[in-house]
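URGENT: need a sanity check before tomorrow's submission.

F., can you look over the Histidine phosphatase family protein record below? I want to be sure the sequence and structure line up before it goes out.
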Amino acid sequence: MRLLLVRHGQTPSNLDHLLDTAVPGPGLTPLGEAQAAALPEALAGEDIEALYASTLIRTQLTAAPLAAARGLDVVVRDGIRELSAGDLEMLPGHTPQGERYLRTVFAWAAGDTALRMPGGESGEEALARYDAVVAEAAASGARSVAMVSHGAAIRVWTAARAANVDVDFAAARPLENTGVIVLEGSPADGWKALSWEGATVEPSGGSGPAGEALGATG
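Structure tokens as predicted:
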């Protein structure tokens, strides 16, 4: 299966760099609406057979133009919502407390899945819910699936599950709004990332730059 993980369009909380992860969350800014409207053309080369979005409003609004253009229903699933910030909810992401969020979630991607977000979920719980939606899509028989999800959730799941993406790679590359990571594989055979916002992904352990676990969430 070809899997496209798409970050939602810009929200007011993105502008303020806030950890805004709770359901239902905010809508899109005017720029976010324009980004969503541009998705059908941006993904014109993709033969998308199924389209998913999370339970947060921003992903459903982002998916709507693509759904209309392709004649697809949007399958809404809680499992691909953003990684819960728990007690850190609505804190500025650039503060020491806010940065704890990304340190925690990238620790999950590195294998410390028993670690729990303060007042929130563990890595085991977060990855399991995301895995379940991906497995559902794979079981549907669709050959190409797009999931409109969230910055931290997409990066962490990809770092945890794609054989050629490590934590340093994912941590150094925040996803822009409506940025896309393309993977191929299956739950049984594993996943390989083909591209990250249009750039080819090199094998894990290559010469890609390392970085701190900082950047876009939500």
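My own read: The radius of gyration is 16 Å. The domain at 2-200 is CATH 3.40.50.1240 (Rossmann fold). If you see anything odd, call me.
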